[in-house]
Amino acid sequence: MAKYDVLVTIPEGSKAIVGEIENTQFTMRVVAPSLELAQAKANRIANSVSQKLFDTPTVSVTVTEVQ
Amino acid sequence: MWALNLSIFDGEKDSSIVTLNFDGTITVANMTTIALAAAGAVEDLIDGAVVKAIISQVVYQASSIAPDPLSDVEIKAKFIFDVANTVKNTIVSIPTFLRSKLIPGTHQVDTTDTDVATFLAFMEDGVALLGSPRDTENRDVTGLISAEEDYGRKRKK
Predict the structure, then answer these.
(1) Contact B33/B4 with Cβ under 8 angstroms?
(2) Which of A20, A25, B5, B84 lies 20 to 30 angstroms, CA to CA, from B14?
(3) What does the alpha-carbon distance between residue B87 and residue B81 come to, in Å, rounded to a whole number?
(4) pLDDT in tens, B118-153
(5) pLDDT tens across B13-38, in order?
(6) How far apart are CA A19 and CA B54, in angstroms?
(7) Inter-chain CB proximity A30 and B114 less than 8 Å
(8) What pTM does this model have?
(9) How far apart are alpha carbons A44 and B147 in whole angstroms?
(10) Which chain A residues touch B64 with a CB distance below 8 Å?
(11) Which pLDDT score, from 0 to 100, does residue A25 have?
(12) Closest CA of chain B from A18, distance in Å
């Protein structure tokens, strides 16, 4: 299993019940046996984040293997 | 929106939480006062004890997300984590846990599963530069001790 950093980017102005999201970018770690699976996991995280926000904005992810 | 969670303990040291919601514009200082008043309003209704009050701000509520119709909050996995600077552990219980994340033929959670491993990484590393999970005394979660399935008393299946 390898570690990957996932940079999650939320569109500016996106809102949730708490109000406008201030941190439009954040990084979290994914652990996966391959880059392909890490990307798939990252995509699921992006979808999860999007669903929590008003109007389900497009959330993007960038995956980088941790050296 | 604020969620005020009152922890009520019984004589066997089991606890249950009462959640009351409040407008999100109320300040933390005022919510603290409200929490004190709420305990005063509840305690004469019970023979347990209101031991703790936690205020939390509701940050998202995605009511349109539909859970699997067969999911059950009583089917859980219990994760026990090591904590920095103490012999105490901290426990996180995940309800509606997928049985496909267990090692076949065992009650053990498959920590080599990508989704499980990512959750474990989140428990240790959190979100870069922002914060990571702690125990109830603000000590850092440092590693997994064990993870296995754990059923609640009212399991439906």
Answers:
(1) no
(2) B84
(3) 11
(4) 999 999 999 888 888 888 888 999 999 999 999 877
(5) 888 898 888 888 888 888 888 888 88
(6) 21
(7) yes
(8) 0.81
(9) 23
(10) 51
(11) 93
(12) 5
